[in-house]
Amino acid sequence: MKARLPQGYGGGGAANLQQLARQAQKMQEQMEAVTAELEEKEYSATSGGDAVKATVTGKLEVKSVEIKPEVIDPDDAEMLGDLVTAAVNEALRAASQEKEEKMSALSGGMNLPGMF
What is the annotated localization of this protein (predicted)? Predict the structure, then answer.
């Protein structure tokens, strides 16, 4: 006994598979282009009322840390370290969030493991 698929299903298996492969290839190319664009961007964040400013790249690498001289207190190096950490983490969050948003928009919200 042969099973029959409802009308509109099956029939063009190879053609549908080729079309799906082309769509996947196009999506991958778009994701690579967006990734390259994002890697060129810079993200900055501040902490301590602009006392510390950190700038990171889209590659999630720290590019610079600027510290206002008036917040450098040799007796409280721990506070300065906290301010630097907070600024760097916020800049990294901004870079990661933008990448996630752009990739999600491209993939239509699909979870594509290993794609990004």
Answer: Cytoplasm, Nucleoid
